[in-house]
Design brief:
The protein is an alpha/beta fold. It is built from 9 helices and 30 strands. The strands form 6 sheets. The chain has an 8-stranded parallel barrel with strand order 14-15-16-17-18-19-20-21.
Length: 549
């Protein structure tokens, strides 16, 4: 059994960003332009120019003098229609979305990203290309408290096992990441990982893709059996549904298109007409899958439930007609499963796509936010994505890597504070081939103290929330507390009065960190510090000692 990490941070804190301290502007025409990006004169633009990206890229060199958190905004226009492109900070990248507009506007593309003193490389890279960029701006912010997580599930009166699983997820969030793997044929990828690494993932992805279609070669209840088997071993069953054409005209779930001529043209917009054949077909399929999920509930098995994934991408029929029919379908499924069939064992996961704010069903119908990221060979922390999602949903929802092609290196997750709940590579080559996830990385990750494997899972059915480890003040206690006193990566400072600043010194008296603070509680990163004793000077008057391990 691996050494378990001590408590790193408190996730019951409120979500708060202090006001902007100052902003640094970098003109697009001052960036290094490549692959056809070109400068254009513009009398109304900052600096008198903008850069037409076209098929190219922009690279900005940024020099910072002190460690801090930054928001990064891009002032840009998308005159050729809506566009998705890529922002990269020191090689950590994420997509950003611009609405169709010829007017320049500010788009916040990076939230609360930690940057150390020195040179940094910020790039705007082509995904779709063809946007116009006026400038980027770095806004220094003070981050005191990042999360205000929902403590209850959206389904009323959940079964105790669902409540216990959600409590386990809350307790681990930001402190450890749960390992996962998607399966195609029963427990295939978990078995492969056990054979090659000696470890099994804690979370198992399972699909209803073949259920309810009358296939003679398939046992319809296989997903139910696999979920029951995995949960009986204290594993987490995560079920999804590649929902094939409800009309049965095809066996497709992909939308019919020029690139997919054999796809389905099933019309989800007919959901607005309850008497339509399409509505009745969708309802019949929902009822069938609800029956399978009900069997799990009767056995006391909770389920992470991720339906209608990647809707805003448009490549599945449920996203082919825009946001309104999709939201109607989500609410119909929720109502039918929860209120009609009485399902209380589901933890509902919405799979985010860039720019899909109009598609979101709403906080009342979603427990967790997932993000599917396929970047071949990219084992970065995806910290930009994590911070952006956390900010977008107000720190209220846990966020997770619901699908990945290549999973993050756990060392980078720790270094960059990307607190994803779990990661789940897709099955087959994504799990097994080195171009996506080398075996050496699997071995490292599944042996890492930050990564939870199946053998480390508690008895989920009877799991109870763990003490937060947060001390409280009594009448005779000092007015400032720091915990834990033996730090792994993050330290929490709690004060009776408003926090203003902290300075950290090593035993030689050298200042190694200084941060402005606000509020009464702050989380301070000590990632990268050498092991040893450190002195904290809080608000220029209170001295505290902590040991970095």
């Amino acid at each position: 059994m691996k050494k378990r990490l001590r408590l790193l941070c408190c996730l019951s804190l409120s979500f708060l960003f202090a006001s902007q301290l100052y902003a640094q502007k970098y003109e697009a025409e001052g960036a290094v332009l490549s692959n056809g990006a070109r400068m254009q004169a513009c009398s109304s633009c900052s600096g008198g120019y903008y850069v037409a990206q076209e098929e190219g890229a922009l690279s900005f060199s940024v020099n910072l003098t002190e460690p801090s958190f930054y928001n990064i905004s891009v002032v840009a226009a998308a005159p050729y229609g809506e566009k998705t492109n890529i922002i990269s900070v020191n090689g950590i990248s994420a997509e950003f979305y611009l609405a169709d507009s010829s007017q320049f506007a500010a788009y916040k593309v990076v939230n609360t990203f930690k940057m150390e003193p020195g040179e940094h490389k910020i790039e705007i890279l082509k995904s779709w290309g063809w946007i116009d960029i006026d400038f980027i701006e770095l806004q220094k912010v003070i981050v005191s408290e990042r999360f205000n997580l929902n403590q209850t599930l959206v389904s009323p009166n959940p079964i105790p096992e669902a409540r216990a699983l959600y409590d386990f997820l809350l307790d681990q969030y930001g402190k450890k990441i749960i390992s996962g793997a998607m399966t195609l044929d029963s427990l295939d990828e978990a078995i492969w990982l056990k054979q090659h690494t000696g470890q099994e993932p804690a979370l198992l992805g399972i699909d209803f893709m073949h259920s309810g279609r009358g296939y003679s070669w398939y046992q319809d209840k296989m997903p139910v059996m696999n979920a029951h088997t995995w949960y009986s071993r204290n594993g987490i069953p995560a079920l999804m549904w590649h929902w094939r054409d409800p009309s049965r005209d095809t066996e497709e779930f992909y939308t019919k298109s020029q690139s997919k001529p054999d796809g389905t043209d099933f019309d989800i917009s007919r959901i607005a007409d309850e008497s339509s054949a399409e509505y009745q077909a969708m309802l019949q399929d929902i009822d069938y899958v609800a029956g399978l999920l009900k069997e799990l509930q009767e056995e006391g098995v909770p389920v992470i439930w991720r339906p209608l994934h990647e809707a805003a991408g448009g490549w599945f029929w449920w996203g082919a007609k825009g946001p309104e029919p999709l939201k109607e379908l989500w609410l119909l499924m929720y109502d039918r499963m929860v209120n009609h069939h009485g399902l209380r064992n589901l933890i509902w996961v919405w799979t985010r796509e860039p720019g899909d704010e109009a598609w979101y069903p709403g906080d009342a119908y979603v427990d967790i936010i997932g993000r599917d990221i396929y970047k071949e060979g990219d084992h970065s922390s995806q910290a930009i994505e994590f911070n952006n999602l956390n900010a977008l949903y107000g720190g209220k929802k846990m966020v997770t890597l619901s699908e990945v092609g290549s999973f993050p290196d756990p060392d980078k997750l720790l270094q960059e504070g990307a607190g994803w709940s779990w990661f789940m590579p897709w099955y087959g080559s994504y799990t097994r081939e080195s171009q996506y996830n080398p075996l050496a990385l699997w071995e490292k990750a599944l042996a890492h103290e930050y990564v939870i494997t199946l053998d480390e899972m508690p008895a989920l059915a009877i799991y109870e929330r763990q003490p937060t480890g947060i001390p409280d003040f009594s009448e005779d206690e000092q007015s400032v507390l720091a915990y834990p006193t033996r730090v792994i990566n993050e330290l929490t400072i709690k004060s009776k009065s408003r926090l203003e600043s902290v300075i950290i010194y090593n035993t030689l008296g050298t200042m190694v960190k200084q941060e402005r603070l606000s509020g009464n509680t702050a989380v301070i990163s000590m990632a990268g510090f050498q092991p040893g004793l450190y002195i904290l000077k809080v608000n220029q008057q209170h001295s505290l000692r902590v040991m970095k391990e």
